[in-house]
């Protein structure tokens, strides 16, 4: 479902925080409109038909972070938040480069106040963006998104210089950058053999043109005119043969088999060594970021070695590994499974558990709820005609509902099970029956989730008032169905008190999900506690893995 139509902005010709927010919103809408067409012309570096989607998801993460910065944010605060959101949400090769481009813009705009001389300031920002993007790529290739960024920067510098000592128009500089990018994009088929053979322009560059068009629109109030080209939302003066699906022309890929992406907390000197190690493992290496937070992207044949290199350098997390062969074969066949389950889970262990049960998973650590675009991407990865979506928590149900509406616009039948906890999702997944009718399956899964009471044990960070009384920092809180019911001093004693309350109204099965730091001895103690007081109740134990709560409890 397309991004909501944006009201036509009024010309402002001032690059302030509000203009950045407008730029972000317009860029997100433009990428949403264009992503399917950009996916279709994606042939380099791998014809995996996801460049448009990756750019959109990166822009969505950036826009979400910018929105969280608030309306009172200064220009510097706004661009830093925007760039940080792109960094932590960057997807794929193109999204990672876009994140670094935004970081380059932020490096300049955050250092200077809004106001006088903005035409030169914008030109400097676009130049810094292109420079930092080139430096982030291990082996830059011309005819790509990098070429388009450099051309935009040169055109902006020329426009700013043409104003001489007079105060120039920042909107004119933005338009020059946009037009320079369009011209450079049109030349990409002649610079990169893969593009020339397929008869298409560079997909990443196509997305960047959309972003720069949004910048001009935000400052001038003028909407970039679309040309009659393959990508309907991006004005590109080049024809694309309609009879050829470029991704079909490159079904065989002789490069590395896996894409590995992760965020990394590490010092800069450790990242320098990491670059060298990853460069020896594969290709398409891009490392962006700074200030001890980096986004690492590489194509390799040994994904374990790529992750291990990150462990040596620092702390990798949000690790994503994609096998190109599976993605290409599925896209080439155009086949869809009849039904799939997409589950949002808070821990890596739970993600593995749900994946083993056949679900497509989305990892959502506490405080890092996924956006609608990420859930739509997961629905598409599931590649099914019918999808059951398990949102994982009450705070994610609105996002899941929005994602479901967008997926339905793609022709997928989607039902959202109103789960409020990961253990309810496990209960629903346990009764999932792909052979039943869709409605029967949804009803059974909804009933299983609704019949599961849930609890979570957490450690209080500070003194506060709760429904069970006043807690102090360090107290163990037992939350039943979302409300604090028990305040204790130890995890085991508090867990037993929670179980006593939950089993008081009956139950047949207790599910325990242990956090990463919780010893197995706790599970043994709680299992014995249940068996001693409730002989007819069975207990199952799972490891939630990193990011999960200390203890989750489900009672069915």
Brief characterization of the structure:
The chain has 556 residues and is of the alpha/beta class. It is built from 19 helices and 16 strands.
Write the layout of secondary structure elements.
Blueprint: H1 17-40, H2 51-69, H3 75-89, H4 92-109, H5 118-136, H6 145-162, H7 170-191, H8 193-198, H9 203-220, E1 258-265, H10 268-279, E2 282-290, E3 293-300, H11 303-313, E4 315-323, H12 324-333, E5 337-345, H13 348-356, E6 360-363, H14 372-382, E7 384-390, H15 397-409, E8 413-416, H16 422-430, H17 438-450, E9 453-459, E10 464-466, E11 469-471, E12 476-480, E13 483-488, H18 491-503, E14 509-514, H19 520-533, E15 538-543, E16 551-555
Parallel strand pairs: 5-6, 5-7, 7-8, 14-15
Antiparallel strand pairs: 1-3, 1-4, 2-3, 9-12, 9-16, 10-11, 12-13, 14-16
Main sheet?
Answer: 6 strands, mixed
What fraction strand?
Answer: 15-25%
The N- and C-terminal alpha carbons lie at a distance of 37 Å
Q: Please give the number of β-strands.
A: 16
Can you tell me the overall shape? elongated
Unreliable stretches, pLDDT < 50, 5 or more residues?
A: 1-5, 227-253, 329-334
What percent of the residues sit in helical stretches (DSSP H or I)? 40-55%
Number of helices: 19
In spatial order, strands of the major sheet run 13-12-9-16-14-15
**Cα-atom Rg, whole angstroms?**
25 Å
Quaternary class: single chain
Which structural category do the helix and sheet elements fall into? alpha/beta
How confident overall, as mean pLDDT? 84
Report what the structure shows.
By secondary structure, the protein is an alpha/beta fold. Helix content is 49%, strand content 18%. It has helices at 17-40, 51-69, 75-89, 92-109, 118-136, 145-162, 170-191, 193-198, 203-220, 268-279, 303-313, 324-333, 348-356, 372-382, 397-409, 422-430, 438-450, 491-503, 520-533; strands spanning 258-265, 282-290, 293-300, 315-323, 337-345, 360-363, 384-390, 413-416, 453-459, 464-466, 469-471, 476-480, 483-488, 509-514, 538-543, 551-555. The two termini are 37 Å apart. The model is unreliable at 1-5, 227-253 and 329-334 (pLDDT under 50).
């Amino acid at each position: 479902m397309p991004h909501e139509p944006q009201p036509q902005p009024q010309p402002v010709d001032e690059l302030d925080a509000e203009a950045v927010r407008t730029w972000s919103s317009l860029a997100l809408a433009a990428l949403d409109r264009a992503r399917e067409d950009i996916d279709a012309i994606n042939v380099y570096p791998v014809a995996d038909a996801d460049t448009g989607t990756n750019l959109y998801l990166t822009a969505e993460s950036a826009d979400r972070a910018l929105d969280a910065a608030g309306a009172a944010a200064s220009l510097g605060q706004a661009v830093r938040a925007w760039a940080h959101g792109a960094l932590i949400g960057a997807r794929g090769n193109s999204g990672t480069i876009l994140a670094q481009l935004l970081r380059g813009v932020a490096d300049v705009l955050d250092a200077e106040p809004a106001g006088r001389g903005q035409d030169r300031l914008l030109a400097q920002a676009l130049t810094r963006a292109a420079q930092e993007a080139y430096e982030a790529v291990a082996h830059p290739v011309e005819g790509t998104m990098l070429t388009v960024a450099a051309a935009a920067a040169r055109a902006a510098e020329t426009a700013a210089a043409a104003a001489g000592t007079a105060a120039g128009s920042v909107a004119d500089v933005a338009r020059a950058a946009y037009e320079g990018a369009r011209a450079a994009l049109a030349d990409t088929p002649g610079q990169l053999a893969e593009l020339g053979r397929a008869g298409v322009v560079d997909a990443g560059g196509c997305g960047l043109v959309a972003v720069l068009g949004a910048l001009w629109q935000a400052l001038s109030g003028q909407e970039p005119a679309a040309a009659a080209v393959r990508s309907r939302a991006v004005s590109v003066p080049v024809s694309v043969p309609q009879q050829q699906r470029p991704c079909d022309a490159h079904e065989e890929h002789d490069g590395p088999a896996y894409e590995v992406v992760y965020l990394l907390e590490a010092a800069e000197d450790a990242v320098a060594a990491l670059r060298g190690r990853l460069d020896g493992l594969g290709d398409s290496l891009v490392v962006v970021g700074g200030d001890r937070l980096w986004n690492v992207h590489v194509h390799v044949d040994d994904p374990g070695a790529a992750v291990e290199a990150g462990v040596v350098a620092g702390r990798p997390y949000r690790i994503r590994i994609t096998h190109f062969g599976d993605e290409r074969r599925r896209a080439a066949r155009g086949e869809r499974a009849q039904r799939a389950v997409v589950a949002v889970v808070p821990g890596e262990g739970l993600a593995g558990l749900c994946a083993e049960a056949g679900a497509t998973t989305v990892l959502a650590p506490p405080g890092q709820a996924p956006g609608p675009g990420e859930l739509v991407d997961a629905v598409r990865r599931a590649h099914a005609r019918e999808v059951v979506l398990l949102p994982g928590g009450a705070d994610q149900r609105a996002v899941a509902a929005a994602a479901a509406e967008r997926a339905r616009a793609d022709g997928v039948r989607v039902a959202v099970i109103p789960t409020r906890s990961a253990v309810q999702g496990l209960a629903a997944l346990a009764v999932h029956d792909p052979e039943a009718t869709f409605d029967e399956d949804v009803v059974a899964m909804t009933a299983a989730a609704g019949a599961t009471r849930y609890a979570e044990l957490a450690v209080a960070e500070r003194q506060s008032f709760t429904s069970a009384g006043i807690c102090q920092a360090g107290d163990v809180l037992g939350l039943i169905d979302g409300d604090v019911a028990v305040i204790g001093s130890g995890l085991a004693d508090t867990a037993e008190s929670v179980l006593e309350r939950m089993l008081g109204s009956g139950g047949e099965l207790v599910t325990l999900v242990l956090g990463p730091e919780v010893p197995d001895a706790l599970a043994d103690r709680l299992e014995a506690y249940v068996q001693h007081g409730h002989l007819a109740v069975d207990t199952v134990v799972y490891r939630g893995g990193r990011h999960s709560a200390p203890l989750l409890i489900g009672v069915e």
